[in-house]
Design brief:
The chain is α/β, with parallel strands linked by helices. It has a single domain, classed as Oxidized Rhodanese, domain 1 (3-Layer(aba) Sandwich). The chain is built from six helices and nine strands; from the N terminus they run ααββαβαβαβαββββ. The strands form three sheets. It has a five-stranded parallel beta sheet with strand order 1-5-4-2-3. β6 and β7 form a beta hairpin. α2 packs parallel to α5. It is globular. The N terminus is likely disordered.
Amino acid sequence: MMSTGVGKRGVLVAAAAVGLLCSTSCRPSVDTSEAGAGGWPEPLRQMAVDAEQEFQAPTVSVQAVMDLPEDVIVVDVRNLDESTVSQLAGAQLLSTDQQRAEFLASAPTQQVLVYCTAGWRSGDYTRQLVDAGITAWNLEGGICAWAVAGNELVDADGKPTLKIHSFNDDMKKCVPATHEAVVE
C-alpha cells in the first residue's frame, strides 16, 4: 500500500494552526461561498462545476478536508513540472498513467483525497478509484481553491510558495490573484 507517511494532519497542520479550515460536512455539489474572501475566480468555479457534472465523483471542499479520516492518503495527479512549482505538503505524486494504475491496483484500504490544479484531472481519477471500490474524494477546485482559502503551498523543497503551475495558458485564469501563475 502506498502512503506518504505524513498523514492528512501533517499536510494540513499550517492551515489548521491558524484556523483557516472549519469543520463542515462533505457536500454533493459545488458551493463556492466558502472559498474565502473574494470568492473563487469565475473560471475556477466553472471548472469545479464542470468536473463535478462530468465525473460525478465525490467531492470535498477545502473547509471539509479536516473532517476526513486522520490517515487519508493525499494524492496529487498533476505532472512533475506542476508539482515541482507547488503542492500540498506531504502529498504523494502520481504524475504518470503507470503510477496511477499501480496505485489503483494496490487497492489501498485507507481513504484517498485527490487533487490537481482545478479539479478536472483529479475528478477523473477519483471516479476511477471509487469505481474500483476505494473511498476517495476530489478536492473541490483543486490546488487553486486551496490557495484561495489562504492555505499554504510548498515547493519541491518544502518551502512556502505563492506560485501555482497553471497547467496551460487557459488555466491561468483559475489561479487566484494572490498567487503567481506559472507555465513552464
